[in-house]
Design goal:
Blueprint: E1 17-22, E2 37-40, E3 47-50, E4 53-57, E5 62-67, E6 72-78, E7 101-105, E8 109-114, E9 117-122, E10 128-132, E11 137-140, E12 146-149, E13 156-163, E14 169-172, E15 186-189, E16 206-207, E17 210-215, E18 218-224, E19 230-234, E20 241-246, E21 251-257, H1 261-272, E22 285-287, H2 295-308, E23 314-317, H3 338-347, E24 351-356, E25 360-361, H4 367-374, E26 389-391, E27 394-397, H5 404-412, H6 415-420, E28 424-427, E29 445-446, E30 453-454, H7 455-477, E31 484-487, E32 490-491, E33 499-501, H8 509-524, E34 530-531, E35 533-534, H9 543-554, E36 559-561, H10 579-592, H11 594-607, E37 612-614, H12 615-618, E38 632-634, E39 638-640, E40 650-655, E41 659-662, E42 668-670, E43 673-678, E44 686-689, E45 693-696, E46 710-716, E47 721-728, E48 742-751, E49 754-763, E50 771-777, E51 786-788, E52 791-792, E53 797-798, E54 804-809, E55 814-817
Parallel strand pairs: 16-32, 22-23, 22-36, 23-24, 24-28, 28-31, 31-33, 33-34, 35-36, 46-50
Antiparallel strand pairs: 1-2, 2-12, 3-4, 4-5, 5-6, 6-21, 7-8, 8-9, 9-10, 10-11, 12-13, 13-20, 14-17, 15-19, 17-18, 18-21, 19-20, 25-27, 26-27, 29-30, 37-38, 38-39, 39-44, 40-43, 41-42, 41-44, 45-46, 47-48, 48-49, 49-55, 50-54, 51-52, 51-55, 53-54
Helix pairs in contact: 5-7, 9-10
Length: about 800
Amino acid sequence: MENKNTVNPELLPQKLVEDEEEFHHVNNPVTGLKPIVKKYLGAPTGAVQKGNKFFFTDGDAKVEVTVVTDEIIRVRLAPHSVFLDEFSYAVPKLENKVSLFGLREEETEYIVYTNIVNCHVRKKDFFISFSDNQNHVTSSDAVQMHWEENIKFGGYYVYCTKECQPEESFFGLGDKATELNLRGKRLKNWNTDAYSFAWNQDPLYRAIPFYISLNKGIAHGIFFDNTFRAEFDFGAEDPTKTSFWAEGGELQYYYIHGPHMMDVVKRYHVITGTHPMPPMWALGYHQCRWSYYPESKVRMVTKTFREQKIPCDGIYLDIDYMDGYRCFTWNRKYFPDPKKMIKELADQGFKTVVIIDPGIRVDDNYSVFKEGKEKKYFCRRCDDYFMEGHVWPGRCQFPDFTNPEVREWWGGLFDELVQLGVAGVWNDMNEPAVFGNGTFPDDVRHQYDGHRGSHRKAHNVYGMQMVRATYEGLRKLMKNKRPFTITRAGYSGVQRYSSVWTGDNVASWEHLKLGNIQIQRLSVSGISFCGTDIGGFSGEPDGELFTRWIQAGTFAPFMRAHSAGDTKEREPWSFGEPYTAINRKFIELRYRLLPYFYSAFWEHHRYGFPIIRPVVLQEQHEEGNQYRQDEFTYGDKMLICPVLEPGQKTRKVYLPKGKWYDFWSHELIEGGKEIVVLTPLDTIPVFVKAGSVIPEYPVMQYVGEKEIDEVKMNVYFTDTEVNSFIFEDYGETFAYEQDIYLEKKFVVRGKENKMTIQQSMEGLYTPRYENYHLNIVGLPFKPTRVIADNNDVKDFVISADKSIQLKLRKNFTQLVIS
Ligand code: MIG
């Protein structure tokens, strides 16, 4: 909390600028009239520094400017000088890593500066703007920060309005169901169960109040850390203005400097965190359906995977595994011996993931309810009644996951499931969703980690705190094993606890296209570990749509097929040939590329890179890229362009500048342009950047099926120099937190008659395998000599497709081919 003594007593009170403009939201509930006016900041009267915080006042309202890092500055507004508690679920700890900062007063403005950015506070009118160290202005207020008193609930509606430039584009905000570029849209943040959502439907299940602006090739980000109902307007109401506002809480935002979009995204991760490493199996294929029951059905499905030789790691139990939908119980009629079943599934390589809902059935004979009731863990209304609502189990009460004690309790409830061998937990309905009313009424109270509030404040974080409780509980119970969690609802920072799926989509081509945008958007919004229900949750895909979805899903960080229970069978073999064979080929490809995907995950976890990246993130300076939304890269080496239309025989693909290899044919193509690619049903456009080293595993039916005795390294010739990074570790423990892992770096250099590959490694992990199988693609000359660390390699083979095959010790440091 901010200390009152920081206000310079010499700062003279200034008159507030009041506007006669009428209040738009609700009438004054007492008088029924509209007398409430918007209040704007008056002119600042001076500046006071306290550590890395700078305070400005107009005599009544106060503004705090915090230097967070060299590139991140936070702004807060207190309408009558009293700031709210400094507490955020999104930002667990505000790191202060600034090399240099200070305050400068000039004739017309105050400037809070770091080495990299300046925050300008204009003396005339309290407009706030940001610039880089070349004095290039990146973001400016279009009006002063303003607010309105909220008579009904107390506090203020808070508003910030910035200039919107003619060519400015906007990205981020989580998984909005619309074009990737948000220019011209107005969008709302209020977590909503949006069954069968439509294109442009808003809001959806998650609230991620972070956006990236791109103006003339220069990017910055704004993270509006406010959990109340909030809206963003990107030039919709007025093309010259970008605004964001909320129905309560504090006007508090982080300005995140670029100029590269990638830097903005990475810096957003610095504030809100990244996904922990998942168990490697979680990057495999997951099969889900509402519902696989009874046990015989589960066994039939899993058996068929193995018979059909279609790889699969995750098998899901939806709500019917429970007894009357009571969380943490089993329906013994359907599943008489869950321990035995889960064990036998595990022996065949299947990890069992079970669903959990927040609604707890009101039933005094049910231990979870009894305990929650006794310990007062359930949410209550303003007059102390319990928050009751109907969900699957019937009449329910709901744990207050914003109470740390409740989270601890909830986490512990997974003990039995963990003992039974459950490997992952799927957190559903946590917007929270309630039949009838949709969600909780606003007056429900929450403990909010000691910063009490109503549901207006807690709604958007409820789901995140539920999955946090789940994750933290599992983490304790599973000892050193990595838990796997999936959630539907979330708020900024939810990535620290869970993967995310996009909710109840529809089996339509439009949804395939939309899902492809949603996962790109989630990725740049901090939530890299995401995917859509492959095939579409409701409705019936035909074989073609399902196969196109499997192909796209192969390159989604989270790959799960799911469907509603009232639809036809929906497994990869359900549509017959040729679909089954193509689905198999792509799921196998997913398993072949696992070490590459796993490395990209590490780059996310450790360094804050998004796993998949829209083209505009690679090439923000290229005109036109701000509208591309079909193609994306996975990591920085592979470019994917899913087929999103029925009957499509060819499609256009944009390749960023540089040289690319067609993944299937190895044809070398110069990028920086659109090309037309053949798209028969058994393929989608995939390209590999020249110079890449892409690690590959043999096809396995599940992670850990075989001991890997050789890793294939696919090396793509380049005539320049390209670095590749590969990450390896045990794949299922937290040993990586003790630095037990291996980071490998490959440097590939080429000339017309020579190619060298250098390898260096750092880390404490030693993989079990001894050798690489090198597959060198695109060599422009016929090699005569291959030298590995000064030794002649004799047994290399030139294949019919001119690629070079050779075996090499995994610790080689240099390979020269001439
Ligand atoms: O009210 O558990 O989005 O994936 O299969 C529906 C049943 C509840 C919604 C989820 C969906 C899940 C379904 N659930």
